[in-house]
Amino acid sequence: MATLREVDGSDPGLVRAYVEAHNAVVLETWGTTDFHRTEREVAGGLRDQRYERKVRLVALDDAGSPVAYGALNLFLTDNTHTGYVDVGTAPTARGGGIGDAIYDRLMDVARQAGRTKLMASTDQAVEPPAGPTALSAPTGQGRVALDDPGVRFLTRRGWQLEQVSRRSVLDVPLPAAALADHREAAQRAAGDEYRVLHWSGPTPAEWLDQFAILQTRMSTDVPTAGLDWGEETWDAQRIRDREAEFAERDLRFLTAVVEHVPTGTLAGYTAFLVVPHTDEYVHQHDTLVIREHRGRRLGMLLKAANLQRLAVEMPTVRRIGTWNAEENAPMLAINVELGFRPAGGAGEWQRDLAQA
After folding, report:
1. Sign of CA dihedral 317, 319, 324, 328
2. Which CATH class name applies to 173-317?
């Protein structure tokens, strides 16, 4: 038997238990601590719920040890018909109904909140080959293994696979000369109309409104396959609110943007997300070149420039991880050219709550 407890950030013991359960599951899946979370990061994320309602559960066994966790994010300003759910159970506790209990509780919360759709992901350290033991995404790109525990869990409950994303990893530092060549070639293709700017931490005030436009476009200009996801509306205040939340969680961004000089507008951006538990790994966060400026090698320009900066500002980093939709061929091509290697990925799922 296990006891479900809600984690709201006020009880350090429950936050610690949630973190332990989460980290145990991701370590078993990936074999690395790159995705680990910290108590400060989790608790800090629960304090500000203006844009998302965040429900967190942890399951404790009879001895009080954490054996499973659950998370539900319900969006409050955009896409208010949907949400994101995540359930993880330690391998030693599977098969006893703990995951079912967490899932059922979170689904009840989502329905009571009036949600009609939910999204979820299933992680995989290796993408399976094509064949009868794999399920292909409707996009025609990417597969998940039918015998994966998470895949079985969702398919039994009426979830539909909509997309597969690829995780790629880059070992750094790269040779400085090779990285300079990438950047110089991309700048030649872009021409003098474009220049790269950098910042660390908060967005400079003079770029807040422009950066808000990029954040809004990020929600519409990237492939989302059959996921029922619409535009997010960002403004300067929302950016500042996210920056404050991330600072409280001990997270920060290293951001590069590309300016279209004749108009003084931003054409794209990329960012590394620096995490608190390690100085050897960073997440490659968003990368976007808006549609009007594509075809000029701006994606490579941004990524190469930010990699150069990372080598100077964070010389201890040895790995960078990134995620892209398998059908996002242009961005995947840039990653491959830089030296990223495939390292598993995730199935992206959707559930219509109107179904029984």
Report:
1. positive
2. alpha beta
